[in-house]
Sequence to fold (178 residues):
Amino acid sequence: MQTATNKSLYEIGTDFLELARLLEDLEGDVTPEIEEKLMTTLKEGEGKLINYYRFIKNLKFEADVIKARRDVLKAEVERLDGIIKTKLNKFDRNALLMEQFMKLTGIDKIKEAEVDVILRKTTDVDYSGVSEEHFVGFYTQPEPKFDSVSFKKWAKENEENALVIGVKFVEKKSILIR
Fold:
């Protein structure tokens, strides 16, 4: 037998079972030595159970602390996501204001020390007045549904065919902030 401080709960349980079998073999005739061993084993078991209780309560407390920290971090992430969204919305609104002003005044470029803003020309394909039946024969795509992005790319690469089916090429300007 190990000393009381080093025994595991399993080992204390094994000692108790050995004593119970011994008592059974002796048909209930308890000697003072067996009674003392039984009381010692029960006391060791109680002490070990108290230690286990403290250990698992500590584990539960630590888990609760970690959960609380996680919840605080989650709330902080949500708060920061909101700030990011607000900042990006402000960026978009102000960039749109800059773009509208530059279009209104005819300013195409501003380049100074740390400022580099260009109102660049882009070509957008407007096919809003063209029915999809007109596309057949000029433009086909591998997928059964219409894909406007690949159609615009095709129209830019096949300008003559696109014009035949009624596509218009509209010059637009969009802002580029570097």
Q: What stands out?
A: The mean pLDDT is 87. DSSP finds four helices and three strands in the chain. The first strand starts at residue 109 and ends at 111. Residues 1-107 form one domain.
